[in-house]
Amino acid sequence: MKNKIDPPQINDRDSLQSQQIHTLTSKEEISQCLISDCLIEDQEAARVSFDKVIFRNVTIAESTLNAIELTDVIFENCDLSNVNFSDAFVHRTEFRNCKLTGTDFSRGRFQNVRMVDCIGDFASFRFGKFKGTAFANCRLVSSDYYQANLNHVEFSECEIDQATLAGCKLKEIDLSDCSFSGLNVDIEDLAGCIISAEQAASFVGLMGLIIKTDPEL
């Protein structure tokens, strides 16, 4: 059963006024606007708040935005690679076709969040707290969820090879339609994880088992 994830609540999206970002300051509040077709770089600020904002074709580079607050926000075709969003609060937010390579979301809190068609190789979600989050058709190679609380998290048709899930309780987490040759997990956390028959061999090594093939086959 798919979890219900509330979408961003942005009324009259077509009437949002465009806004340019030059320099962000700590605790700045930005709301009800469209930020598009721009480069935002060399920013360093804490607790910046975005509410009812659409980012479209935006690149954020060489920036540290600790404890950013995103509520009712949509990112479309954005490049957020290597941005430091540690300790973020993310609520009713969608990332669509975004680059999140190496993005730091460690210790973030995620509720009603959807990431679709994104590239998140080496992204960090370490120690994150998730409640109602879906990753769909995303590439998440070597992404890191170490000791994250994956409450009602979905991975649908994602590439998660060598992802770190150590310290994560994987009960009811369905990985059966994801692709991977190996994961970094703790055997005691696998109870209740849902996988396909084809994926089972990837976990055999964790259990110290050896598969003996029939030489006559």
What can you see in these coordinates?
This protein has one helix at about 200-205; strands at about 15-20, 30-40, 45, 50-60, 65, 70-75, 90-95, 110-115, 130-135, 150-155. With about 220 residues, the protein is an all-beta fold. The protein has a domain at about 75-205: 3 Solenoid (Pectate Lyase C-like), CATH 2.160.20. The strands form two sheets. The protein has an eight-stranded parallel beta sheet, with no helix packed on it. The chain starts with 16 loop residues before the first strand and ends in a 13-residue tail after the last helix. This is BTB/POZ domain-containing protein KCTD9.
In short:
This protein has 217 residues and is mostly beta strands. It has one helix at residues 201-204; strands spanning 17-18, 29-41, 44-46, 49-61, 64-66, 69-76, 89-96, 109-116, 129-136, 149-156.
Name given to the CATH homologous superfamily of one domain: E3 ubiquitin-protein ligase SopA
Mean pLDDT: 92
Strand order of the largest sheet: 1-2-4-6-7-8-9-10
Outline, from the CA principal axes?
elongated
CATH T-level topology of one domain:
Pectate Lyase C-like
CATH architecture designation of one domain? 3 Solenoid
What are the low-pLDDT stretches, counting only 5+ consecutive residues below 50?
none
Order of helices and strands: EEEEEEEEEEH
User: Count of DSSP E strands?
Assistant: 10
InterPro entries: 5peptide_repeat (IPR001646), PA_immunity-related (IPR052949)
Protein name: BTB/POZ domain-containing protein KCTD9
Pfam families: Pentapeptide_4
